[in-house]
Amino acid sequence: QKTCGECMAAGSPCGWCSQLNYEFLERCDLKDNLLRNKCDPSQIMTVQSSIYLNENKPPMDSDSVKNAIQLSPQKVTIKLRPNDPFTFNVHFRQAENYPVDLYFLMDLSQSMADDKVKLASLGDALATEMNKITKDFKLGFGSFVDKKTMPYVSTVPAKLENPCDEMQDCAAPYGFRNDLPLDIDTSRFKAKVNEVKVSGNLDAPEGGFDAIMQAIVCQKEIGWRNQSRKMLLFSTDASFHYAGDGKLGGIVTPNDGQCHLNAQNEYSESLNQDYPSISQLAQKISEKKVTVIFAVTSTQARNYYFYKTLSEFIEGATVGALAEDSSNIVSLVRDNYNKISSSVELKTKGEEDTQVIIKSKCFGSVLCDTAKCDDIRIGSNVTFDVTLMVTSCPKDKSKWKRTFSIYSVGFSEEVVVDVELMCSCNCEGPDQEVQRSEECSREGTLSCGTCLCNKGFYGKNCECSSDEMGTDDNLCKKSGTSTSKICSGHGQCICGKCECNPINPSDPSKKYSGSYCDCNNYNCDYEDGKLCGGPERGVCVCGSCKCNEGFQGASCGCATSKKECIASDGSECNNKGYCDCGRCRCTDVTYKGKTCEECPTCPTACDEKRGCVLCRAFKVYSKLNEEECSKQCDHVAVVQEIDKIDETVGQWRYCKFRDDSDGCDVQFKWNADNNEIKVAKSKGDVICPTPVNLLWIILPVIIGILVIGLLLLLIWKLLVTLHDRREYARFEKERENAKWEMGENPIYKQATSTYKNPTY
């Protein structure tokens, strides 16, 4: 970033140092880096996004004097820094008695005759039901058939007068007619519906799109109020014509989306303009903030699917199944109104080149990734988090100011957001910049501490001419030939001198050095995690460690002094090794430690005195014989209690060991100064284990085994006895029931046989 404005556009972490004679090439950097590089804090330029509430009226319910307010704030101005997301809150509260405009748009082709009759009879009930929802309610009525030309409508003269059978009195076909503009006197609705006649057409699809377009865009003629929930109930039993179908009747002019109602309140351009497209209709519905309810007869499942799919492309639209005679129209309107009014969804308009993300806190503090909340009731408060971000500053400064709006689907209220991009610094204004500044060799403009050079000049102070650029580059090559890299590839050649780049862009304080930027003072060996062992040992100079006095080696890790190798007895490495690089290298593998004085496998001082203690105090000669004991153990004295030894003289140490002969623990103390040993034979100082009486262990085990065996034997005998008794009882019962008489014995056979001759 070469200017302060470009630096601000890089994001909120960046700051610009406007200090004169700032020694670092990059003025745009992290604020911490600028401070570390000794930029005066008062000269660090930075900006933060902010918001100003131009209009912030609190939410309020509707009454006869004042309009309801549901969205707040109403208008804000946001100063937005590029690449710095900024979040503010928008609040929605559903108002009581919010105005409702309901326009009933009905298909009056002949197949809807019974629906018209039913609608007229239910007009009062519909008005009563809506008055329960809001006291500010208007009701209107419009009808449609289709374009008055072939192949949509029969052009036979008689059919143009009465398209129905001769026995029926039908109205002449028409495209769309506004029969009853929105009126607070809902009693007129029933009379008007009774008054109009059904009509007829030829093809199955109807001209409903023409009717919807006119009903939406003719706001004055229909009577739509600026602030109201605008609802259009579209009732039909047929599908629809759309853009392109007009060619069948020779109509090729696209629909212009404008209002064309004549003095008779009929659509005057029906035969001149094609049907609207779905996208054109959806755009107008969104623009005019109208909520469409498609009421399709339930017997037409295919058409219901068409309108269900259509509703997915139209903002806020819903679909309801209409009874065959429209008898459920009141409940359909009520249910769909409750469904629509219990949901609030925020959308944006005109936010080009501005990223807008809306998240909701429907109830509570949980933030959801959606701009929609359901189950909203009158008086409920909902908060939305709106986040804005711009990724770059347009070159055209007129685009640094922009406006967009946030609106709630189905309502005309909106939040107007004026955005001012912060793409420049205060020091860049005409009154702050210095033209032909001395700091810039009179060949540039001093702006925010840096020089903006005129054409043909460059350099930190515009001191270089572009005519000398080729010669200057050769001066920045180490070998002086054209094959070498300029500044070793680690810097920029400015006026024949190398300006070295940072080694790591994240830390500009660490740069390449040298006349040709060929030195790296941060690429040396490390010792103990520090470069060249740290400043107390050495410094890195052009890739090699330069050690301080008393240190040596590639990483200055070797101390030349042997001070750290002296053992406690004054010897070098305890005579168990040698001193290398200020550290002991132990040659005896049994020793280790800083000075080779630690020997984990060597006998301790307590172990060495074990034999004398046993022979002198207990006459046990397992370690030493009697002769050795008398010669070597004169320093051992037997006392009554070792706890009463005067320890003020010498360095007494406590020892304890277990005698292998009897398992007793023996305690004693010895004086490290004169090797004197004090051992006691008192009860408290000799701890022997209690002898184990094996008889008391063996006898209970034997008795337990016998008792358990007898119990198991008794249980087995009991089970066998019970089993035998059951078997014997069953045998006795079977024997009593047995019958062995000859007449009943199945295996009995008489001794004689009788044969009969059939002849006699």
TrEMBL record:
Transmembrane segments: 694-716
A single GO molecular function term of this UniProt record: integrin binding
Membrane topology label: Single-pass type I membrane protein
Protein location: Cell membrane
InterPro entries: EGF_integrin_2, Integrin_bsu, Integrin_bsu_cyt_dom, Integrin_bsu_tail, Integrin_bsu_tail_dom_sf, Integrin_bsu_VWA, Integrin_dom_sf, Integrin_I-EGF_CS
Keyword Transmembrane helix included in the entry's annotation: yes
Annotated Integrin beta subunit VWA domain residues: 3-425
Annotated ranges, domain Integrin beta subunit tail: 606-693
GO terms under biological process: cell adhesion mediated by integrin; cell migration; cell-cell adhesion; cell-matrix adhesion; integrin-mediated signaling pathway
Family: Belongs to the integrin beta chain family.
Protein name as it appears in the record: Integrin beta
Gene (UniProt): 20196537
